[in-house]
Amino acid sequence: MLPFKAYRTGLASVFILLFAGNPGPATAQYSGPPKIVQRERNDFVGAKWALARRGNLLITSSREGTEAHVWSGGKFNSVNRSIDKPANDFVHFASEADLLLIGSSAGIAQHQRLMKGKAPLPGLTPPADAMFPGDVPESMRKSMEKALKSRPSAKKDPLELRMFANPDKTTLRRFGSIELQPTTNWLTVAGDATKVVLYDGGANTLEIVRVAEGFNTPSQRWKDVLYPTQLHDMTLSAKGGHLLVAQELRLSLIDTDSGTLIQAMPIPENWRQLRFSYGGRYLVAKQISEDQVSENKATAIVMEVTSGRILEFPIDAADLVHVTPDGQWLVRINSSELEFTKLANRNEKYSELLHDDCNRNCDIVFAADAGRAVIWSDEPARIYVAQFPFNSK
To answer: How far is CA 304 from CA 4, 12, 233, 282, 308, in A?
Structure first.
């Protein structure tokens, strides 16, 4: 393990080149202050959501089906046809390519809840240290149980990720599939969608899949490259050559061609719900100290990985915190508001009212290459679309 100073100076030059990514084609951007531009009823309770990189296509996967919604006339409109099986656990667009990944896996569903600090799904055994602050409202139990029953069984259907190409605003065509092991816990896709990494927590194994049209199987397996601590999140470089991994107590950089651990650094023990943002440039976390627990308070941590610089923001323990894909805004969903704060200038702050207790029953997805985000809740069943200034460089 390298000391922190060595990590900052040694990894930074590698990281900037490998994780900078490609800003992609120019996209017409919104230039006004962040604001809510659409408020609707959510007809997709219990769904997983994904937003295409240009912000023009929204995917919802609920018990009723997996549907596409096209941005037109200042709102998302359903195309009224199912594109895949219902109740998928994982729905995600690559950040720099027009490729959609969809799949069902109890392990992945459970890991997503762990990342959000939520209680385990009914009927599934959580990891030993999965319990973080936050729980499921009693009123949501029935919808969660129905979603669990709707999940395809491994006995009936193979566990796989299905891939769809999205070359324009509305077209989605079947591109290929990736085989999943029942013990797969988490995955990440390269920005250019050429490589997928699968993580098996039970075997402590990383599996590398080189994406091609058709059926794809892991081409490499790396065992015990990671430290045997709880994995939170991982992200591939733009072209998939390097993998950045956030685990309990540790941040690691791995070469995906050789499976070599290049560098690692320690992170504080009381950082929770770690996730990468801005193509891996930032690590976002919650820090909850002993004196904050009784007051239901926490600190949002935004660490710039290349420099080690840390920004701290006071929040409530239940709040959802993200950084926008361009790395410009801290986004916070608190008890009743959506709040945007400029990282470079905390005095530049905007907020919009949502609904009471939205930080306990809301989620958000961003377009990777445009200033658009979708926020939704299951109870009350509501959807919001937000626009914000976006730096495409």
So the answer is: 13, 10, 16, 5, 5
Q: Give the integer Cα–Cα distance in Å for 317 and 59.
A: 29
Report d(CA 7, CA 253) in Å as an integer: 10
Residue ranges in 251-384 assigned as alpha helix (H): 290-293
Q: What are phi and psi of 344, to 5 degrees?
A: -80, -15
d(CA 309, CA 282): 10
* C-beta atoms surrounding 319 within 10 Å: 22
- The three-point CA angle 363-188-249 to 5° equals 80
Which residue type does 151 have?
R
Exposed e or buried b per residue across 144-174, where buried means at least 16 C-beta atoms within 10 angstroms of its C-beta: beebbebbbeeeeeebbbbbbbbeeeeebee
**DSSP, residue by residue, 213-226:** SEEE--SEEEES-S
3-state helix, strand, coil in the chain (%, to 5): 10, 45, 40
Tokens encoding 138 = 């009693």
- Is the pLDDT at 322 greater than 50, yes or no? yes
The C-alpha atoms of residue 31 and residue 371 are separated, in whole angstroms, by 9
pLDDT of 155 reads 43
| Range among 15-19, 135-139, 176-180, 292-296 rated most confident | 176-180
Mean pLDDT estimate for the chain: 84
| pTM for the whole structure | 0.85
